[in-house]
Amino acid sequence: MMSVVFSNFAAIMSTYNKPPLTYDQQIELLLNRGLIIDDVDKAKKTLANISYYRLSAYMLPFKKNVGGKIIDVFRYGTKWDDIYNLYKFDRKLRLLVFDAIERIEVAVRTQIVYQLSLKYGSHWQDDNSIFLPPQTKTLRNGTTQTVDIYSELQQHIKEQVENNKAETFIVHYKETYETPSNPPSWMCVEIMFFNHLSKICSQLKNRADQSSISNYFSLPPRIFNSWLHTVNYVRNICAHHSRLWNRDFNIVPERLDFSKTKVWISDPETAKRSKLYYFLCMVNYFLQTINPRSSFTSRLKELLKQYPVAKISAMGFPQNWEKEAIWITK
Asked: pLDDT digit string (tens) for 190-233?
């Protein structure tokens, strides 16, 4: 029976046989599909610097939809500039978001070090007792994964101390001090990846330790940990120059119902948490603590105004979003 299943599966599979195309052939293909290209030479130069495959993701919103299926024909009147402007919008959006994430990341690093160092001393990262013991989790695909943040941190710190010659403070510590073998936490946390920060906050054994960090950002620990996980996910999207603007997030942040101290959206229950708009609200919420005078809101509005080709509905923006208190510039 199993062989029949595999046989049927193989029967419906096909072989990829699309040949590589020259820039001229790529232009010809787009023209044949109904795209208007006013300046062919300029379009070819763009294709020489931005691959056809990368741009193809920005072509999809302009293609015809027949019976719920997108076909390789552009809607009437679609121009090359429409696609390229959408690409430019997404690039500038990623830069704006990444800049805000940098501020969040630095603040989270600071609070982790500050809160835990005052409570447990300079080398709390070497204290196994403050972290949850190793846990085995079952993933969606049925496989299991062991989470052992203490061992993971120790391995990472060891590798950095032995091999990182770019950070002068690591080199100085190694050359100056024999014990402890690991530098103090304020050095170690600086060289940790962002996903380590998220794991530290979620894997602290005592809830009071989690709260001491999350309270600074006016968030409950569970939501704070969830939001950090999503921030790390979006950070990776931005760092790899991947499409952001209309993406459905694989890692969906938990819902914040209300806030006693910060401005939040008025109807969180209906917000599409898998879309970009909710994430932008999260960023704005963080910045109210980290940088209350941030220009994030005004820069976002200006970017959306500059590129109307990017439909805000595809990003999960609700109607009249600009009237939400969180987006009103004081």
From this structure: 999 999 999 999 999 999 999 999 999 999 999 999 999 999 99
Under 8 Å CB-to-CB from 9, ≥6 apart: which residues? none
Q: Please indicate whether residue 3 or residue 251 has the higher confidence score (pLDDT).
A: 251
Q: What is the pLDDT of residues 281-309, one digit of tens each?
A: 999 999 999 999 999 999 999 999 999 99
Q: How confident is the model at residue 6 (pLDDT cuts 50, 70, 90)?
A: very low
| pTM, 2 dp | 0.90
The answer to the question of residue 282 being in a domain is: yes
Backbone angles phi, psi at 69, to 5 degrees: -120, 130
Is the model's pLDDT at 188 over the cut of 60?
yes
50 lies in the same domain as 97: no
DSSP string, 316-328: TPPTTGGGSGGGS
The pLDDT score that the predictor gives to residue 59 is 97
> Do the bridges between strand 69-74 and strand 135-138 make them parallel or antiparallel, or are there none, so unpaired?
unpaired
pLDDT score of 1: 43
On whether both 65 and 93 belong to a single domain, the answer is: no
- Nearby residues of 250 by Cβ (< 8 Å), 6 or more positions away: 233
- Contact call for residues 168 and 187 (beta carbons, < 8 A): no
Residues 154 and 277 both lie in one domain: yes
Do 64 and 144 share a domain, yes or no?
no
119/57 same-domain check: no
34 and 108 assigned to the same domain: no
For residue 289 the two structure tokens come to 């603590």
List helix spans (H) across the chain.
Answer: 2-12, 23-32, 40-49, 52-59, 80-120, 149-163, 168-176, 185-188, 194-203, 207-214, 221-239, 276-290, 296-306
Say whether both 121 and 236 belong to one domain.
Answer: yes
Q: C-alpha distances in angstroms, 246 versus 61, 190, 276, 305? A: 10, 32, 7, 17
Residue 178 pLDDT more than 90? Answer: no
Residues 166, 31 share a domain? no
Alpha-carbon span 53 to 311, nearest angstrom: 22
Evaluate whether residue 4 is within a structural domain: no
